[in-house]
Specification:
heterodimer, A: 200 residues, alpha+beta, 4-stranded antiparallel beta sheet, B: 187 residues, 7 helices, 5 strands
Chain lengths: 200, 187
């Protein structure tokens, strides 16, 4: 891991966390140990509450996002040689469409309470809004370097979701239009394209 | 909270954190920074990986006062992947079968790594070093990599078809035939 800096918009891509139009942001930040059960419980509940899932994915630039509460680092050597940390840690990884500034702004202004709850259990957290201190904090904590892979790096989240919608609608249309005469087919074809306009 | 937390829809979020043997961190860094990108990536060969990252944690970021500073005794290799699958085992099998040399190149310098020849030992080692996800959210949770790629290609084809056939002089019969020829199999 090198010095943790997220480059400003328009700067050359960092090799370890950028591919095509996708960016991978990894944070590994301390959580006071007394808060670990609360944070774990909240994340557990969020998994099973549909509203929470919709809330998390309200930003249509996130492909995949994960939170992992790490109480202690895995270690395959002798127990007495393991790292003993003062804090638990929250491992966060988000795979999203750049530029990252939009992501952080959305975080800071649209869901500040969520952000405060999840990351505010650690020391020296800059409670948003405003967004600027949060951007600095994220830049400071972004774990850089390494290598990053995505199977469809040139496709934004919106493009993927649109493509999936098109595929489903196309299958339905092909099936439902199989027996139509030419004029009826053309009418239904025009309606089909019209319905899909936002996805094309 | 176990493995069920790693799954959302048909996707599985794997996080593996392995301590790197003393003195080997620069070798691991060289290996992972040299992993081919995009379609040349070994992970592309698996056909099930949506996203993946390999990186090194060689220090923890000090947040400033009032934090008590945490310093790492070990360096760690962190491997994450979001892949298609309900279970970890088939994914680990695919690593052993399809990208053994590549996987070996980035894990071989980690503590107690058993190699890939003993498949059972390798799987146990991965599971011992896995940290289970607390929450995993996915924009399109039930879409596999092949399905996403196919959908993206299909959308492109439909756009091209719509543009090529927007001429008002195309008869309804011609349009229907062209459409069936282009998309008749997409049911």
């Amino acid at each position: 891991m090198t010095a943790a800096t997220l480059e400003p918009e328009g700067a050359p891509a960092l090799p370890g966390n950028n591919l095509g139009r996708l960016i991978c942001l990894t944070l590994f930040t301390p959580v006071r140990r007394q808060w670990l059960p609360v944070l774990s419980a909240a994340l557990w509940i969020a998994k099973w509450v549909p509203f929470a899932q919709r809330h998390i994915l309200q930003f249509n630039f996130i492909h995949f996002v994960r939170w992992t509460v790490v109480r202690e680092l895995p270690f395959a050597g002798p127990r007495e040689e393991r790292d003993r940390l003062n804090y638990g840690y929250l491992f966060f990884e988000s795979n999203f469409d750049g530029p990252w500034q939009h992501y952080i702004d959305a975080f800071a202004y649209c869901i500040p309470q969520d952000i405060r709850f999840v990351w505010g259990r650690g020391p020296a957290f800059p409670y948003p809004p405003p967004a600027e201190p949060l951007k600095k904090w994220i830049a400071m904590n972004s774990m850089e370097g390494g290598s990053y892979y995505c199977a469809y790096p040139e496709s934004s989240t919106r493009m993927v979701m649109s493509a999936v919608a098109v595929k489903d609608a196309l299958g339905d249309f092909v099936a439902s239009s199989a027996d139509l005469g030419p004029d009826e087919f053309k009418t239904r074809y025009d309606q089909f394209l019209s319905r899909l306009q936002d996805h094309l | 909270m176990g493995e069920s937390r790693d799954r959302t829809g048909t996707a599985y979020a794997l996080t593996v954190i392995t301590a790197i043997s003393p003195g080997q961190v620069e070798e691991v860094r060289k290996v992972i920074e040299g992993v081919p990108r995009g379609v040349s990536s070994p992970l592309a060969k698996l056909g099930t990986v949506h996203t993946s990252r390999l990186q090194i944690f060689d220090h923890l970021v000090y947040q400033g006062a009032p934090q008590k500073r945490d310093q790492l005794r070990w360096d760690y290799l962190v491997f994450t992947a979001a892949f298609d699958g309900h279970d970890l085992d088939p994914f680990l099998d695919s690593i052993v079968d399809q990208i053994p040399d590549e996987a070996d190149s980035w894990w071989r310098h980690c503590l107690a790594y058993p190699g890939l020849k003993d498949r059972t030992a390798f799987k146990k080692w991965i599971r011992d070093n896995q940290v289970h996800t607390s929450l995993f959210a996915v924009a399109s949770p039930n879409r596999s990599v092949p399905e996403v790629l196919e959908s993206l290609a299909l959308r492109e084809r439909l756009v091209e078809f719509a543009i090529a056939n927007q001429n008002q002089q195309t008869s309804a019969a011609e349009l229907r035939e062209r459409f069936r020829s282009a998309f008749g199999g997409e049911v």
